[in-house]
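can u do me a favor
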């Protein structure tokens, strides 16, 4: 299977190629705005420019769209105003979706976000990190917590249009929290804060970061497995799945649905960790 990955050198893109790069079922083309290393062909193009990306979709079976133009106000910004980065991300979504349809790809896997339903967390924090009583099921409607979340909600709806009007299979992955290799564990955010000097290990702020990530974490091998499940699937017309590992305290709760629909069976879980790696 020939697969194009946009934003391929980022955190999620490298997780995919770290775990699937040697898989004989795939030939990857890695697209980003800067050159980088990885398995398969690497190309430089800007997803905001249709004419730049169009040639790289030719002959592909699927695209995994991860590219994100920074500056939408941050995942936690509640600003409502329009901005150039916001417009750029919407333009990129249109370009990738239109190009996938024009090039007659079989499927489009889209890096959506937990922030598409982020108000579930915002309205219930910090209790949601501890009590296990608040759950956002598969049928949770869009509840974006930010302009960033709005772009992800829009991307899912655009994918539905492409799927139902043009026949491309669409998978929206509402990713929880995927970390770079050095922080790929449920203590990752807390430890990164220690490294930055934001708080001390064992502080209240540290413990709250651990509690949050033990619910929201998706390991790098689990996100690669989820993408693999979607690429191998031939049954879905349009759907979305929560990108989390098998965390006991997760509030994004459709693992049974994802397992039944595409075979996602995560291997990692936040509660398996009682401290950061030594």
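np, heres the sequence
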């Amino acid at each position: 299977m020939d697969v194009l990955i946009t934003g391929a050198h980022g955190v999620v893109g490298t997780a995919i190629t770290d775990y699937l790069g040697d898989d004989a079922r795939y030939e990857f083309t890695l697209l980003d705005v800067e050159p980088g290393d990885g398995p398969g062909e690497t190309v430089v193009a800007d997803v905001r420019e249709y004419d730049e990306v169009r040639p790289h979709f030719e002959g592909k079976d699927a695209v995994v769209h991860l590219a994100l133009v920074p500056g939408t106000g941050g995942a936690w910004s509640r600003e409502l105003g329009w901005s150039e980065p916001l417009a750029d991300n919407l333009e990129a979504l249109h370009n990738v979706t239109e190009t996938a349809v024009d090039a007659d790809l079989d499927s489009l896997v889209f890096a959506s976000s937990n922030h598409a339903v982020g108000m579930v967390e915002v309205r219930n924090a910090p209790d949601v990190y501890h009590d296990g009583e608040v759950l956002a099921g598969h049928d949770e409607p869009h509840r974006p917590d930010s302009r960033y979340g709005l772009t992800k909600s829009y991307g899912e709806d655009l994918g539905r249009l492409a799927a139902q009007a043009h026949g491309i299979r669409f998978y929206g992955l509402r990713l929880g929290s995927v970390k770079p290799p050095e922080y790929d564990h449920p203590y990752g955010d807390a430890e990164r804060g220690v490294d930055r000097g934001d708080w001390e290990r064992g502080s209240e702020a540290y413990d709250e970061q651990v509690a949050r990530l033990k619910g929201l974490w998706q390991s790098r091998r689990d996100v690669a497995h989820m993408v693999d499940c979607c690429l191998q699937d031939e049954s879905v017309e349009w759907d979305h799945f929560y990108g989390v590992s098998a965390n006991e305290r997760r509030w994004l709760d459709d693992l049974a649905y994802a397992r039944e629909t595409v075979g996602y069976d995560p291997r990692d879980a936040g509660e398996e960790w009682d401290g950061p790696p030594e």
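The beta strands are 2-6, 27-32, 41-44, 62-65, 107-113, 169-175, 238-243. hope that helps!!
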